[in-house]
Design a protein that fits this description.
By secondary structure, the chain is an alpha/beta fold. Helix content is 30%, strand content 22%. It has 2 domains: 245 residues, Alpha-Beta Complex (Spore Coat Polysaccharide Biosynthesis Protein SpsA, Chain A), CATH 3.90.550.10; 77 residues, no CATH class. Strand 1, helix 1 and strand 2 form a beta-alpha-beta unit. The mean pLDDT is 95.
Length: 351
Amino acid sequence: MEEKNTRHTVIVPSYNTLEHLKNTYKSLLLYSNNVDIILIDDASTDGTAEWFKTIKELNIKTIVSPTRKGHTYWYDEGMRLAKTDIVSILHSDMIIGPCYFENMLSYLEPGKVVCATRIEPPIHPAGKEKIVKDFGDEADTFNWNAFESFCNAERTLRFGETTRGIFAPWMLYKEDHLSIGGHDQGFAPYGYEDSDIFNRWILAGYEMIQARDSLCYHMTCRGHRWNAGVGIENSDYQETMNNGRRHFLKKWGHWIKNDEYQYPIISPVYNKKLIINNSNSGLEQLKDWFNDGEDIIIEIDGTTFTQQDFQYISNLNDIIADSGDIGTFELGNIKITINNIKDYSKDLIFL
């Protein structure tokens, strides 16, 4: 594997994560070179703007936003400000390890997106796309020496190893990202914008690569959900995530699906309209799955709708794809009329 020494830009938005951001900053000073760094204070109230004034490194640009816009906005704006062709992002609760950027760069080419391998404390379920190992779950408990030793051993063991997956943190050519319109700001300030852009990158034909020898530690969820500590949930978290969820469902017509390495599984996207007879408040949320198109008409009755019918609705795009026939049929207590079976998924690539 040929090592590349290409200057690039890393973008790190932060919202009330100052103590975690200080660790991110420290790791960038320790383990990066030939890198421009853009640190963004997204209208924090924890002293981040004041701390920015102490940063003197010439390769670090700081931005203080007077209003909160969210990392969905700042990733793209940071790229527009970047003076390099290659860009990457970090969450403000991530700590990079030795040779983090060098190893990612060794796999990168135009038309490819490279993500690193996250190491996380045992807070969330394990998965093949990450390593679960505890080096601390708060900014002041992080074990720097143990983390560095583990990274050095693991990257030697996994040198040159990749899997097909995609998750933050990632790196790509700026033009590849901005040419399709960047992130969908309908997800701002945050919430499922990552799953949306992953789908769009794949539909645009980009190759997804996970570098198993590029390692970072991820405290998890400190950028918006638990920035006051694990289990202390922000008051706006559920509402913001629900808004993102509704936007994703309305746009894609199905919920997020991934394989065992977190590689997205993209179902066809159809123009579907839902008609609810004898509706009730519990059924109104089903409208999130539909875009009021006329190609496919779904009729349900609130008095007979069952949990099994809900499962059919959840998998309706795949069911329609398997059917492939114009006409009307019934599935459980659902009446489905297919007038046109066009797949609109590729229309969602460009914004």
